Amino acid sequence: MAGAAVLVRGTLRGAMDRRWWGVLGPLVVLGLIAGVGWRILTAGGIGANIGAGLLIIFGTPVAAGLLLWALAWAFWLVTQRHGHEGGGDLGGIASRGV
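User: That's the sequence. What structure does it adopt?
Assistant: Structure tokens below.
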């Protein structure tokens, strides 16, 4: 929660380019899927094997898609040269003050 608060505050102050939320959003969802998935895979109760199988069948492609989306979007932001909102000319990574 503290990390999210820092990122939102930085975005509102203009210290972080808003377009990077297209990378952070899928990565946050990927983290949630990984956390819930780990909980399901390590469950010791009856029926856990069904949940683990469903997670592997359906969760893996979703996780891979989210990761590929975040990587592609980040690559696009880094290689884009015109129209970035940041202060430095580092491909949109560094913003005002750097």
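The two ends are 26 Å apart (CA to CA).
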